[in-house]
Specification:
18 strands, 4-stranded antiparallel β-sheet, globular, about 0% helix, single chain
Amino acid sequence: DGKIYETTGLYGQSKVRRINPDTFEVEKSIDTPREFFGEGSTCFIGKDGKEYLIEITWRERRGFVYEVPSLELLHSFDYTTTAPGNQGWGITYDPTNHELIVSDGSEYLYFWDVENFEMKRRVTVTRFDGEIQDQINELEFMDGLVCYNIWHEDEIICADPWTGKSVREYDFSDIWPANQRGNSENVLNGIALGKDHVLITGKRWDRIYKVTFDDWPTLFGNDN
């Protein structure tokens, strides 16, 4: 619907927000139950053709589904990822294959059915050099690739969703240098695809950056 949807973390402070993309003002904010640490979220199209927002949580193995744009909580569900923690970190949506893609801080990407949120498959993620990459955090599906940041690193890596192999790798250490953020935990962990730009932000960041990728002409549906 053209809005930005954002989830925030920490116990007792987690929220789901709808944000105006022009002014970045919060239009609506919903509290996640206090006993849950909110993590990633994404909008997706259900098999009924309606749009929903899904939120996952860090350690509680619980997900929440909201109506869009009202953010009315519709239901919750339980899930598993990598044992023994079964954590939830990032989530995104592949509209072509109608799959939700989930990270949990491990080297795996999990692919869920949008109807029942059950795992269909998982892939191991590797870098250009063939090394396995763990600490996969925030996710965004962009131009057929699963793009992710690495926890405590200022890189965004884009992987093939079928093989897990890295296709694109970007260094964002200069966008807002880590030594200016005030805390080592104020990491880059926000990626959102817009119509003609990508939004980049992070944990406790007081700013959002609009970026483009000059080497990626098909990213916004224009290959000229």
